Amino acid sequence: MLERYSFALPKGKIIRRYGVKVLQMPELNYNISPGNLIPAIRDVASHRLELIRWGMDLKKNKLGRANRPVSVINASVISNADKPASLLLTQRCLIPADAFYCWRRLSRKSYVPFRISLKWNLPFAFAGVWQTEADESGNETITCALITTTANTLLAPLAATMPVILPLEEEKNWLAPQEGPFAVKYLFSSYPSDQMKLFPVSSKIHDLSFNSPLLTQPAQPVDQHGNYVLFGEQ
Known about the structure:
Layout: E1 5-7, H1 11-18, E2 21-22, E3 29-32, E4 37-41, E5 48-54, E6 56-58, H2 60-63, E7 70-72, E8 74-76, E9 92-97, E10 99-107, E11 110-118, E12 124-134, E13 140-150, E14 161-163, H3 171-175, E15 196-200
């Protein structure tokens, strides 16, 4: 499960890389977590960057189970493309990012954080889905979840799944409204391992309020308790 990622590009680089209008500049954030307002691109026509909330509530009538709303930050396409991801694929979005984080579990109570990015630190986009939610007062909020798939060989030692990272040339196809969920199913493949890299980062990432460029630098592998471990950069 993806629970943290990074997006810390200045406005000029956002415009050049994603070709969007930036109406509200997102904060440089090296430690984005669920519940945060995150930058997203929902509309292939206007192609503008907007801020939406990461984490959507799926109701009983959508999942067919659960007696109360279920908070979803990732939607898996691994076991069954019909549950729950394809229920939402008519409302797709791009989630810009420059890296994400996974934890390597050493024991039941010990794990080490890793930063995963593309080689040469190129920015990219996650495949996401969105919906409009209304609170009891009728106020509407746009929320989203990230699509996940089977982990590639680089990430398999850390996690069973990884986020769907879209090839640059396929980002517009993901947003295209005429493309049905099964027409874009081929995009759910794991991103190639040989085009990615990872390294351990500071254990300070466990503090949700810690937002620093320090998280872009390799660190001595330390678990959440401050214990040093033996493996190093991979």
